Amino acid sequence: MSITRLLGIKYPIFQGAMAQIALAPLVGAVSNAGGLGIIASGGLSANQLREEIRKTREITDKPFAVNLMLMMPNIPELIDVVIEEDVKIVTTGAGTPAPYMETFKNHQILVIPVVPSVKIAKKMETLGADAIVAEGTEAGGHVGETTTMALLPQVVDAVSIPVIGAGGIADGRGIAAAFALGAQGVQIGTRFLTTIECPTHPNFKQAVIDANDTSTTVTGRSLGGPVRSIKNEMIKAYLELENKKASREELEQLSLGSLRKAVHEGNVEQGSVMAGQIAGLCNKITTAEEMITTMFQEAQHVLDRMASLSLVEKEWI
Predict the structure, then answer these.
(1) How many other CB atoms sit within 10 Å of the CB of residue 150?
(2) How far, in Å, CA of 211 to CA of 167, rounded?
(3) 306-314 mean pLDDT
(4) Rounded distance, CA 106 to CA 300, Å?
(5) Residues 87-90: contacts with CB within 8 Å, 24+ apart?
(6) 11-200: which CATH number, 3.30.470.30, 2.40.110.10, 3.20.20.70, 3.40.50.10710?
(7) What is the sign of the dihedral through the CA atoms of 107, 112, 114 and 118?
(8) Looking at residue 64, what DSSP letter applies?
(9) What are the counts of helices (DSSP H) followed by strands (DSSP E) for the chain?
(10) Of 161, 209, 242, 311, which residue is 20 to 30 A from 201 by alpha carbon distance?
(11) How far apart are CA 63 and CA 74, in angstroms?
């Protein structure tokens, strides 16, 4: 079954679950536009998640999902809210959904883990995942080490469930490329940062618009939790501390509250502006609907053009 039919959506596009950003205004807009809006529950209390779910339903009557960061200590309470509010799709990360899979299945909840490797993708299929998001290191926020170009076709070959490509996709060409590699859909985060409905400070959006292909870097490798962000004063100081083998406590003290500073206060020098390597293509503010429809028109154009190409000279065949 195609991912669009499985989830009841028009376009095979997931909106990335960006912490403190992927909330009702953006999620509802994406779902209304025909994609799958995803609420980021990381950092939310059970009551806050319930409020975001209800706010989203005030905006849209289309399907949407909740992302569950499984390392969060209040995950059991968040799952209770998902069940009580009758959300039928969850994406997962930062841990295994194994302890909760039976509960999800008992409540007819579709489970779609985000994975950075073939090994984990195969484990998720064995657990009963309904689809997989294979996310390359080009993505913003928490990342793995393998690029999307290398990861995606290997995951597609390794599992029999639908695979969604993520990391480094921001236009129709990227969508077409993901489909060429075997994906049934795409997950996009960074491009949604430059939508009107994205509830971030204008300075945050401008930082993404001003970014180019070399504007991001990865911190946190020494802690085992690499994160991709746009370079700024805080990131520079963090990397200097990492190079000096600073303790976890020193590094965490420097980055404490940094996402809030950037997202809500607009402090894009001392805050964490998480974004992917594709930020250089995100240079225009649009509505979520315009973004989605334009990208899929572009993707269809690319695929149509490719269908007419011959990669081998006929006289050589």
Answers:
(1) 12
(2) 16
(3) 69
(4) 38
(5) 87/53, 88/63, 89/7, 89/36, 89/63, 89/64, 89/65, 90/65, 90/66
(6) 3.20.20.70
(7) positive
(8) E
(9) 13, 11
(10) 242
(11) 24
Q: In three state form, how does the secondary structure of 19-56 look?
A: CCCCCHHHHHHHHHCCCEEEEECCCCCHHHHHHHHHHH
Q: Which tokens in the block code for residue 161?
A: 């469930």
Q: Is the dihedral of CA 7, 12, 17, 21 positive or negative?
A: negative
Positions of E strands within 124-277: 132-135, 141-142, 163-166, 185-188, 216-219, 227-230
Q: With contact defined as beta carbons under 8 Å apart, do 189 and 276 qualify? A: yes
CA distances from 156 to 4, 95, 160, 169 (A): 17, 21, 7, 17
Instruction: State the pTM of this model.
Output: 0.89
User: pLDDT tens for residues 154-182?
Assistant: 999 999 999 999 999 999 999 999 999 99
The predicted-structure confidence for 39-49, as pLDDT tens digits, reads as follows 999 889 999 99
Residue 234: count other Cβ atoms within 10 Å of its Cβ: 22
Sign of CA pseudo-dihedral 50, 54, 56, 61 = positive
Read off the tokens for 263. 């997202």
Name beta bridge partners: 177: none
Average pLDDT over residues 94-102: 92
DSSP 16: P
User: Which two three-digit tokens encode residue 5?
Assistant: 């039919």
Q: pLDDT band for position 95 (50/70/90)?
A: confident
Tell me how long the chain is.
317
- Residue pair 182/308 in contact (Cβ under 8 Å)? The answer is no
